[in-house]
Amino acid sequence: MNIKQIAEKAGVSVATVSRVLNHPESVAVKTREKIQKIIDEEEYTPNWFAQGLNFNKTKTIGLVIPHTLNSTYMEIANGVEEVARQKGYITFMCNMEGNPELEKEYIDQLVNRKVDGIILLYSLGLDDEYTEWIDELDMPVVTIGESKIKADWDSVKVDNRAAMAEITSYMLECGHRRIGVLRGTDPEAETMYMLQGFRNVMKASGIRVEEKMIFDVGDNIEGGYIGMKKMIGVLPKLPDAVITTGDEIAYGAMDAIKEMGYRIPEDIAITGFGNDRMSTLVEPKLTTVELPYRKMGIYGARVLFDHIEEKEQKKKHVTRSIKLQAKSRIRKSCGHEGRIGEMF
Amino acid sequence: MNIKQIAEKAGVSVATVSRVLNHPESVAVKTREKIQKIIDEEEYTPNWFAQGLNFNKTKTIGLVIPHTLNSTYMEIANGVEEVARQKGYITFMCNMEGNPELEKEYIDQLVNRKVDGIILLYSLGLDDEYTEWIDELDMPVVTIGESKIKADWDSVKVDNRAAMAEITSYMLECGHRRIGVLRGTDPEAETMYMLQGFRNVMKASGIRVEEKMIFDVGDNIEGGYIGMKKMIGVLPKLPDAVITTGDEIAYGAMDAIKEMGYRIPEDIAITGFGNDRMSTLVEPKLTTVELPYRKMGIYGARVLFDHIEEKEQKKKHVTRSIKLQAKSRIRKSCGHEGRIGEMF
DNA sequence: CTGAAAGCGCTAACAA
DNA sequence: TTGTTAGCGCTTTCAG
User: Fold this and answer.
1) Which positions of strand D lie within 7 Å of protein CB atoms?
2) By the CB < 8 Å criterion, does A49 face chain B?
3) Residue B36 CB in 7 A reach of strand C
4) pLDDT band at A343 (very low <50, low <70, confident <90, very high)
């Protein structure tokens, strides 16, 4: 059923039908009602492609995600979708599944399909030539999470440096001095800031950081397991504590520590990063940093829609950069006797 | 840059440009090369909407998912995407985030955007009127996982009944007799089959199933925790073992058991379902059932593309139903001394 | 092998 | 307030 057939049924021209669809106020009440009734009866929906050919908007935004198996990203995605749905937009989710090659390809597709805006999650990095191309297109883009993109795009980030600094301070408070680091290498820029936070605190406390206690590992359970075994194997004596840049890394490390017969936190204390839902279920419960994922998504989407609206109203755009704060979750694994006790 | 401009640059008609895009063999080699060169230089891509208006295919499939935070669904989704990408298709992922209302809405959108086919993951159920409507549209659909849909659509399922029967047998082998069940209610049809498998084995072994040992709980960590506490509170004496319909439920239950001071598996043995990546990291490692998620996605996508091709070639379609087998993962939590030992 | 022209379904400027 | 009509960018028949 197309607009012409509706028009015939109603005994009017296609233009009038089009009007009740797009500018109903400009149609006489009686005609409008008659047409609307037929539209409802026939369950007519305008052809999306024909509309796309005429309009310059699709009520769709694109969301590019590094991995879908990582619940971190999905929580952010959920925040984005929530806002988008409220605004009557549909979210086109693109999953790179760890393949950086796909990033540009997906963005190309999104541009091709004329999405109204794009959100990039922890982008693996787009070269300047590419970002300039996007800018020429005048496509609103916002990045969520750390990335190496140099373009002057809207962004939402978490203050990882501060978060890691805070948790490092706790470790020192607990009396740990020889602190190892298992650093996931996945989104590199991000762990770099974490490491800075760690170093800053150590330095401020006058403790020398031993470089050979910092290990780059895969950003997952296996990485943590392997890294921990390696660290214990290499060091002359056990570290007091190990700081990790991700909960999954911590899980793997804990498994390794237990397997080697050591106790947590008595022999080695440990911290995670992310406050994954499993972090209270491992033994002992994991001290970690809670990141405001959902909120990142919500803010990211809001910033994007602001940009989209500015564009529609031909106002000039000012870049927005939002930085959110994380929160430490002190649990048993760090050996801090004082402030323990959380169930979920 | 549009087709007309390309045509002008090349000094040919738009028809010829269109031909090198769609039927290159029908264009003289020299003309073709000249045009192709310009296309490449200008980085011209045909307008997606204009194409959609003419073609009846979009090289896009839709994938409707109940939750994105559940890694189960995402693994299936990954399988689907993998196949789709190989075929040169893009996957449009729609996340219902547990809101059944959204299912039809999303499918409407997908139909509207003329996707070439739709995959429904653990559909919450569509009424007959709706499924008939889809059938009239002649839209290829495949369902993955149990659902209450009555339509004669292609489907890929796991034999949950057999899987649960197998794991129940193991529990009996381990000497457990009084076995409780924590049954997640989320995708109801699915857990129903599991329960059947459980009952069948118990019956075959001549053990009476006590109905008051079967609890319906939320399909997540919290559900398992609450359900387990309730079960222990209600029963006159501890069950020998508890079977759950999901790993997350098991995690919560384990937490409750430990919290109440009981040992696993000595006091209460436990099993999960799903072989979640955390299942080897909880203490003790969880006996569970490994489901071929990725494979389900891959098969589902293949079946869909078969259907799409049949439709293109106007062959008549025969419904395909695939049933995959699961595999038990015996670990420490079930108290089976014999066959333990898996790391990852 | 190539071009002219009709048409896909819709919107919007222009007339009436 | 409504209708007529010219596009939007592309594909495809039909002639040549």
Assistant:
1) 1-5, 7-13
2) yes
3) no
4) very low
The tokens for B107 are: 């499918």
Report CA A94 to chain centroid distance, whole Å.
13
CA–centroid distance for B114 within its chain: 22
CA distances from A39 to A18, A88, B105, B243 (A): 11, 21, 18, 53
* Cis ω for the linkage preceding A187 (within 30 of 0): no
Indicate the SS3 state at residue A170. Answer: helix
Please tell me the distance from the alpha carbon of residue A328 to that of residue A334, in angstroms, as a whole number.
Answer: 12
DSSP 8-state assignment for residue B316: P
Is A52 near chain B, with CB under 8 Å? Answer: yes
* Residues of chain A contacting B65 with CB distance shorter than 8 Å: none
Q: Which of A93, A114, A280 sits opposite B93 (nearest CB)?
A: A93
Please judge whether B344 and A221 are an interchain contact, meaning their C-beta atoms are less than 8 angstroms apart. Answer: yes
When CB atoms are compared, the residue of A47, A92, A222 closest to B344 is A222
pLDDT value for B336: 64
List of E strands, A98-149 = 117-121, 141-144
- DSSP H or E segment with residue A39: helix A29-41
Alpha-carbon distance B111 to B139, whole Å?
A: 8
What is the predicted pLDDT for the residue at A107?
Answer: 94
C-alpha B76/C-alpha B292 separation (Å) is 9
Q: DSSP class of residue B287?
A: B
Q: What is the pLDDT along chain B (344 residues), one digit of tens a residue?
A: 899 999 999 999 999 999 999 999 999 999 999 999 999 999 999 999 999 999 878 999 999 999 888 888 999 999 999 999 999 899 999 999 878 888 998 999 999 999 999 999 999 879 999 999 999 989 999 999 988 899 999 999 999 999 999 999 999 988 999 999 999 987 777 899 999 999 999 999 999 999 999 999 998 899 999 999 999 999 999 999 999 999 999 999 999 999 999 999 999 999 999 998 889 888 899 999 999 999 999 999 999 999 999 988 888 899 999 999 999 999 989 886 544 433 33
CA distance A52 to chain B (A): 6
* CB contacts, 8 Å: B68 with chain A: 68, 74, 77-78
Mutate to test the interface with A, among B45, B76, B93 (most CBs of A within 10 A): B93
- DSSP letter, residue A273: S
Residue type at position A115: V
Nearest CA to CA, how far is A51 from chain B (Å)?
8
Nearest to A74 among B68, B78, B109 (CB): B68
3-state DSSP percent of chain B in helix, strand and coil, to 5: 50, 15, 35
pTM of the predicted protein model: 0.86
Measured from the CB, is A26 under 7 Å from any atom of strand C? no
Structure tokens belonging to residue B180: 């409780």
Local structure of residue B277 (DSSP, 8 states)? G
How far is B164 from B156, CA to CA, in rounded Å?
18
**CA/C1' separation A13–D4 (Å):** 9
Q: Round and report the angstrom distance from CA (B136) to C1' (D9).
A: 30
Determine whether the interchain pair A95/B77 forms a contact, defined as Cβ–Cβ distance below 8 Å. yes
Round to a whole number and report the distance in Å from the CA of B22 to the C1' of D3: 38
In sequence order, which residues have a C-beta less than 8 Å from that of residue A2 and are 6 or more positions away? A44, A47
**Three-state DSSP class for residue B95:** strand
